[in-house]
Amino acid sequence: MAKRARLLLGSCLALACACSKRPAPAPAPSAVGSAEAVPLDHLAPDELAPSNVEVYGFAIPRGMEVESRLNDRTYVRGHVSPEALANYVREQVSVSHVEIGAARTVFPMARIKRGPADRVYTIEVLPDGSYTRLVLKDTTPPPPPPPNLTDAERWRAAGMTPDGRPLDLKSLE
């Protein structure tokens, strides 16, 4: 009888354990749709990824390198498609309109989202043989001169004498 009681008790415990384990709920319909989408850490075809190099707060895409950097403009080139680069630029800037042509794509009066808020740039995407060039030009207008200056003071503020000669010839070197 004790053997039968232990067997019955064991069966009851096994049944109780089996009942307490519930199957996992089915995923919501929105979760099923997102599971089929491309993971966030993968790039779409012809999508460019940012690099660690920044110019004026603009992250240069991977596969491109800075050719030259001046005070008011920077030239970048790389083996990327012009369309992919233009799409990449659209994501990085705020611009009212884009000028698309056969020879180039221009983003006039653009503000770089991660750059200085008071600066305005003209950004050009130019196909150049097997390369694509990116030109970033700082086109921020100069601040207005202070009011109530005499003509001589205005010339001096511009670094010139009233007859049009530079005040400091070494600054021209």
Question: What attributes does this structure have?
Answer:
173 residues; alpha+beta; seven-stranded antiparallel β-sheet; 4 helices; elongated
Write the element-wise H/E pattern from the N-terminal end onward: HHEEEEHEEEEEH
Strands, count: 9
Q: How would you name the oligomeric state of the polypeptide chains in this document?
A: single chain
The number of helical segments is 4
- As a percent range, the share of helical residues equals 25-40%
Q: What is the rounded distance between the termini?
A: 110 Å
Mean pLDDT: 81
* Largest sheet descriptor: 7 strands, antiparallel
Quick structural overview:
This protein has 173 residues and is an alpha+beta fold. Helix content is 26%, strand content 29%.
How would you describe this structure to a colleague?
The protein is of the alpha+beta class. It has a domain at 50-138. Helix content is 26%, strand content 29%. The protein has four helices and nine strands. It has helices spanning 2-20, 29-36, 82-92, 151-157; strands at residues 50-55, 58-61, 64-69, 73-78, 93-94, 99-100, 105-112, 121-128, 131-138. The strands form two sheets. Strands 3, 4, 5, 6, 7, 8 and 9 form a seven-stranded antiparallel sheet that branches. It has a two-stranded antiparallel sheet with strand order 1-2. The longest helix has 19 residues, at 2-20. The radius of gyration is 32 Å and the shape is elongated. The protein starts with a helix and ends in a 16-residue tail after the last helix. The mean pLDDT is 81.
Task: Please give the structural blueprint.
Blueprint: H1 2-20, H2 29-36, E1 50-55, E2 58-61, E3 64-69, E4 73-78, H3 82-92, E5 93-94, E6 99-100, E7 105-112, E8 121-128, E9 131-138, H4 151-157
Antiparallel strand pairs: 1-2, 3-4, 4-9, 5-7, 6-7, 7-8, 8-9
